Each structure stands twice: as structure tokens, then as C-alpha cells.
Amino acid sequence: MGQLEGKVALVTGGGRGLGQECCRIFAREGAKVVVADLVPEGGAQTVQLIKDAGGEAMFVRADVSSSADVQAMVKAAVDNYGGLDCAVNNAVRSVGRHSFAELSEEDWDKTIAVNLTGVFLCMKYEIRAMLARGAGAIVNVGSGNEHASAPGIAYYIAAKAGVLGLTRVAATEYGAQRIRVNAVGPGSMWTPLLRETAARDPSHVEFLQNLTPLQRLAEPSEVAEAAVWLCTDSASYVHGHTLLADGGAMLGSLSGYAKPGGPK
Ligand SMILES: NC(=O)c1ccc[n+]([C@@H]2O[C@H](COP(=O)([O-])OP(=O)(O)OC[C@H]3O[C@@H](n4cnc5c(N)ncnc54)[C@H](O)[C@@H]3O)[C@@H](O)[C@H]2O)c1
Fold first, then answer.
1. Hey, what domains does the chain have and what are their CATH numbers?
2. What residues contact 69, with CB distance under 8 A and at least 6 apart?
């Protein structure tokens, strides 16, 4: 018997990477899963993975920066599965690294639209569905970086810091209505994007590993386990929290002492 038997879970950006792993683990725990993504191919693959393992899932094409799409996405969960219990807001848009002076205003607008406004829109309509249900659990995906800094990704860190704020305010507003709101802060994960970077520039991975006390990068499933756990009753008193699943990377970033044999 899974920990989320009979529940309905929604994951944005569920077509690959961390989102796909969250979908897979929700299904393993017995939830019916709404896989939402901008790209139908990845979403269809996630649904197939879940069905092949005996689970239940459906795909909804949704751009999280569109209010109409987000409303239709949540409605699909309610119409097809009867309501919404759990949601992981995970979708992300990246435009690479650009210093402040070089970042175009267009790139700023389109990344903030997905990475910050998208999370707000998802939360707004997920919360409405959860209020109708009488309870719920939301997990926003941060990055860990919002607690520190990194060059060239102001648009990303600003959005993730905003997501932290949305998480805290929603937790304050909706705890009394039995909606728990938390965030997960992943360290660097072996997603397809990182594998491409690693093939081009192995020293980048070495750099990230050296910042991480566990001295390795995460498999997406290791972070997804934390995100799904936050939605289970095992986390029933965890609320307004950001759970770092980063191998201690934040300690390394802040202290510079992560590498064994590093500065004394
Ligand atoms: N990869 C890492 O090392 C890392 C580190 C820290 C935090 N994170 C965070 O983890 C989350 C997942 O990262 P990932 O590496 O798995 O990402 P990814 O790029 O592999 O997957 C993102 C998914 O989001 C979808 N998407 C993009 N724009 C969308 C939109 N407008 N509407 C709906 N879906 C959209 C994409 O199609 C894709 O399936 C993100 O929130 C990211 O910021 C990742």
C-alpha cells in the first residue's frame, strides 16, 4: 500500500528531469498523476512509464505562464480524477548565463513569466481546488541557490527567491485550511541538460562536485523522493519549509570548505 493511495497529484514540467521522477514516485505511492508540460512528447513518455508500471496518469499540455492553461490544467485534475490533493510546481525556463548588463529585458520577462509568475498562477488555482477538497499539499521547486548566489543567472535566482516568498506567504495564509505549502531546494542533478554540459565541459561537473560535501551530484530521483515525501502524511507537521536536497552544497557554497583537503 502506497503512502498516497487514492490521492490525485499534479506535476508541472512533468515531461522530463526532476518533474518526470516526481510523477513516477507519486504513481509508485498510489496517486493518480496529472502530468503537465509544455512539450507533449515528454509528457506522453512520462504517462507511458507510469502505465507500464501499473499506475494511472494523464497528460495535460499547459504553459504555466498562461492563466488559461493553468486553469484548464487544474480543471483536468478535478474533472478526470475528482479533485486535487498534491501539486509539485517544478517547470522551469532557462536562457543560459548572461551578466546583468548583458541580460536582455525580453529574456528577463519570459523567464520571470514561467519561473515566478507561473508558480504564482499554479498555486492560485491549485489552492482553489484544494480548498474545495478540504485539504492539500503543495511543493514548489526552488534551487538552493536562492540562499546564496551564482554569476550569470540573476533572472533565475530572483525568480527562485520569489518562489521562496510565495511558499512562505501561502503557508501563512492557508495552514488553517489544512493546505500545507513547502519547497524543495535541489542541488545540481544529473538531468539531460547537465549530461550535455558534462560532455562539453567535464570541469564544470568537477567544480560542482567540489562544492558538495557528499562529493557527487544528485540523481533526480533523490530530490523527487524529498518532494513527494513533503506531500505525504509522514510530513504532516512540516509547513512553510524549504527542504534542501543538495548533498550539503549550500554549506560548501557558503563556507568554501566542502572539498576534502580544501583550505584549513
Ligand atoms: N537541474 C538541476 O541541476 C537543478 C538544480 C537546482 C534546481 N533545479 C530546479 O529543478 C526543477 C526541474 O529542473 P530540471 O533540470 O528537471 O528541468 P528540465 O529543463 O529538465 O525540465 C523542465 C521541464 O519543464 C517544462 N517546461 C518548460 N517551460 C514550461 C512552461 N512554460 N510550462 C510548462 N512546462 C514547461 C519543460 O518542457 C521540461 O519538461 C526546476 O524548477 C529547476 O529550477 C534544477
1. 8-255 (3.40.50.720)
2. 61, 62, 63
Which of 81, 125, 156, 174 is the catalytic position? Answer: 156
Separation of alpha carbons 32 and 5, rounded Å: 8
* Per-residue pLDDT tens over the stretch 95-127: 999 999 999 999 999 999 999 999 999 999 999
**Hey, which residues does 92 pair with through a beta bridge?**
none
Q: Which three cell numbers stand for residue 238?
A: 512540516
Counting beta carbons within 10 angstroms of the beta carbon of residue 101, is it exposed (0 to 12), middle (13 to 18) or buried (19 or more)? exposed
Q: pTM to 2 decimals?
A: 0.96
Contact (Cβ atoms closer than 8 angstroms) between residue 136 and residue 127 = yes
- State in Å: Cα 126 to ligand 1 middle: 19
